[in-house]
Amino acid sequence: MWVADSDCTTNTCSELTRFDTTSSSTYEASSTPFSISYGSGDAAGLITRDTVTMGGFTIENQGFAIVNQTTSGLVSAPISGLMGLGWESIAQTGATPFWEALAQSGTWTTQEMAVYMKRYRDAFNPSDVETDGGSLTLG
Q1: Residue 127 in domain
Q2: What is the end-to-end Cα distance of the chain in Å, rounded?
Q3: Domain assignment of residue 129, yes or no
Q4: Which pLDDT tens digits describe the chain residue by residue (139 residues)?
Q5: Which domain holds residue 74?
Q6: How far is it, in rounded angstroms, from Cα 59 to Cα 136?
Q7: Which of 31, 69, 83, 103 could be cross-linked to 44 through a Cys-Cys bond (beta carbons 3.0 to 4.6 Å apart)?
Q8: CA geometry: angle at 17 spanning 132 and 72, to 5°?
């Protein structure tokens, strides 16, 4: 998992909502570098830790990356980061992924998750026709 940092220096980040590490009392700074390449671009920054909350679930001391450099076109507003769905054994950060930490935490009534993604075949600009791109259901 990574989010754009308030110190992101690339033009791509100027339009994104960015994470201001100084506004978090639980943020743990790090100097461990992070770099990942996708088919659509690259992201780089630092691996760090903080309390992360999503969908009413919270994981303390969650490992993730804050990104201060991205290539053009990797993400665009309103997206300001990515959460991978791979297991800890293949996580680029080496941290237990947020969803896996939730499943292990005992806060879900069942250790299940579901992903639904829309796909439009032969649509060159899917965003022109999509009304919602999918959903992630946890627990």
Answers
A1: no
A2: 19
A3: no
A4: 999 999 887 777 888 889 999 999 999 999 999 999 988 889 999 999 999 998 888 999 999 999 998 888 788 777 788 888 888 888 878 889 998 898 888 888 888 888 887 766 666 666 655 556 678 888 7
A5: 2-107
A6: 17
A7: 69
A8: 80
How many domains does the structure of the chain reveal?
1
For residue 100, which of 89, 80, 51, 92 has the smallest C-alpha distance? 89
Q: Is 115 among the domain residues? A: no
Closest by CA position to 66, among listed 102, 105, 36: 36
Q: Tell me the C-alpha distance between 99 and 81, whole Å.
A: 15
Cβ atoms of 70 and 35 closer than 8 Å: no
Six-digit token string for 63: 């490992």
CATH number at residue 80: 2.40.70.10
Residue 35: count of CB within 10 angstroms of its CB: 12
14-29 b/e (C-beta count within 10 Å ≥ 16 → b): eebebbebeeeeebee
Structure tokens at 116: 């639904």
Sequence-distant (≥ 6) Cβ neighbours of residue 128 within 8 angstroms? none
Residue 137 belongs to some domain of the structure: no
